[in-house]
TrEMBL record:
Organism encoding this protein: Rhizobium miluonense
Pfam families named among the record's database cross-references: Fe_dep_repr_C, Fe_dep_repress
Compartmental location: Cytoplasm
Family: Belongs to the DtxR/MntR family.
Subunit record text: Homodimer.
UniProt function note: In the presence of manganese, represses expression of mntH and mntS. Up-regulates expression of mntP.
Keywords carried by this UniProt record: Activator, Cytoplasm, DNA-binding, Manganese, Repressor, Transcription, Transcription regulation
Protein's recorded name: Transcriptional regulator MntR
Length: 114
């Protein structure tokens, strides 16, 4: 779910809208797969959908997207600081961000400030 709300936020920020077809293309999944997840996100009050208008984040969805983006950025920055190349750091951060605790994230942020 976090990947979806983060992607929706990115699409809205960069393209002005998030459409089901764009989400499917960016994630490399089928539109029916996206439709199922969007239904779940709507049930969790993370998004709203308007016919022919795309997908929009609720306030709760926006908070989750920003928290996910922050975790990703911090983890990626730590990996780069450790000497991991940018592409590898970006890809690895995508997996690590979902498992890192808030306590570890705070330690990463302290590390980055030194």
């Amino acid at each position: 779910m976090e990947d979806y709300v983060e992607l929706i936020a990115d699409l809205i920020e960069h393209a002005g809208e998030a459409r089901q077809t764009d989400i499917a293309q960016r994630l490399g999944v089928t539109q029916p797969t996206v439709a199922k997840m969007l239904k779940r996100l709507a049930e969790e009050n993370l998004i709203t959908q308007r016919p022919y208008r795309g997908v929009f984040l609720t306030d709760e969805g926006h908070r989750l997207a920003m928290a996910t983006r922050r975790r990703h950025q911090v983890v990626e920055a730590v990996l780069c600081r450790l000497g991991v190349d940018a592409d590898t750091a970006r890809n690895d951060a995508e997996g690590i961000e979902h498992h890192v605790s808030e306590k570890t994230l705070e330690a990463f942020e302290r590390f980055l400030k030194t």
